[in-house]
Design brief:
about 350 residues; mainly alpha; 5 strands; binds tryptophan
Length: about 350
């Protein structure tokens, strides 16, 4: 029986927040730590820094974000002996594969990508040229992502809903390459987290950097408390029963609580807990889970060379797999030594 190969990438443009933690980082790390039967597959987690360049040319931001994201995953206990943890740009076979795939990917397929179409539509709405400020990176984004996935022959790709189309495109491109050059690639499947894994932000909308409503994961205690105090509530007074439905506060509580704690807070809402008190309880709960990793995070951020070492360890493992595979693919497309 062939083993599962799970792979996912994190674009290095931002600071990890509670939504990232609950929806992506925590489940991925837990998966990498599972030892029981059925979870003995391979795990690849990487910093998608080439993808970051599509979104920003702010070099400091890209660099700082890579450091923060890597420190976060390590601080939270990612087992780097079990999972291959690397930086996309440390694996030169990925951009090489990107080109091979670019040459079999249909342009019409890329025209249909949501991210690209949204950008064009925004331009049209603003009365601009349809291609205004759209770079080739954005247009070719799905091909680079396909290369990330196919380079390690991933079978399972955990992503958010907004990325499903990209996985479908990777499947399409893999099939096309296999059809032309023989069966080299597995056809990857998207793995979508549960609905509850999307966290609400300070304003009640989905927690997202683009809404500027996030709670960064590793804040000092004081700042964490301040952010939690900013979670939007309503004007109900202490003693007035409160609705758990649509409450960002209750939702964040549930992302950190066990079953008993969930039931307890639901009862407190019904009893009319004061918002200030609920926020204090939430702070204590979240802080209890994050206090230890926060300390490790601060230490790691002070010693980037330790982070770098881990990334190099991962890159070596990644290249050791990518290099022979790439040799096979080169041969398959007719790029090989003469005589
Ligand atoms: N595009 C993904 C995102 O923005 C990040 C990413 C890059 C990725 N390459 C990947 C995810 C490969 C899964 C597999 O979230």
């Amino acid at each position: 029986m062939s083993q599962n190969i799970t792979l996912t990438g994190i674009t290095t443009t931002g600071t990890p927040h509670l939504g990232n933690y609950v929806g992506a980082i925590k489940p991925a790390i837990e998966m990498s730590q599972r030892k029981e039967l059925g979870f003995e597959g391979q795990y690849f987690y990487f910093l998608a820094d080439y993808h970051a360049l599509i979104k920003t040319q702010d070099a400091d931001r890209v660099h700082q974000s890579a450091r923060e994201i890597a420190a976060t995953w390590l601080a939270l206990g990612l087992d780097t002996d079990k999972a291959v943890f690397y930086r996309q740009s440390d694996v030169p076979q990925i951009p090489e594969l990107t080109w091979f795939l670019t040459c079999v990917a249909a342009k019409g397929l890329m025209n249909r990508a949501h991210a690209y179409k949204d950008a064009v539509q925004k331009n049209l709405d603003a009365g601009e040229d349809p291609d205004y400020a759209i770079n080739m990176g954005l247009f070719s984004y799905p091909v680079l992502m396909a290369a990330d996935i196919l380079m390690f022959n991933a079978t399972h790709v955990p992503v958010g809903r907004d990325q499903i189309q990209h996985i479908e495109m990777a499947r399409d491109i893999a099939q096309r390459f296999n059809h032309l050059h023989g069966k080299h690639f597995n056809i990857p499947e998207a793995v979508i987290g549960e609905e509850g894994a999307v966290l609400k932000g300070l304003d009640g909308r989905k927690m997202s950097k683009s809404y500027d409503n996030t709670i960064p994961l590793f804040l000092t205690e004081k700042k964490l408390q301040k952010h939690i105090n900013k979670i939007k509530t309503n004007l109900l007074e202490p003693g007035e029963p409160k609705d758990t439905e649509d409450s960002a506060l209750f939702e964040i509580w549930c992302a950190f609580a066990n079953a008993d704690q969930k039931a307890w807070m639901a009862q407190e809402f019904a009893n009319g807990i004061a918002w200030g008190q609920a926020k204090k309880e939430l702070f204590a709960l979240v802080n209890a889970e994050l206090a230890e990793p926060r300390e490790r995070y601060m230490e790691l951020m002070e010693s980037p060379e330790v982070i770098e070492q881990e990334l190099q360890k991962g890159a070596e493992k990644a290249r050791a797999m990518a290099s022979p595979f790439m040799e096979k693919l080169r041969d398959a497309v007719g790029i090989r030594a003469l005589g």
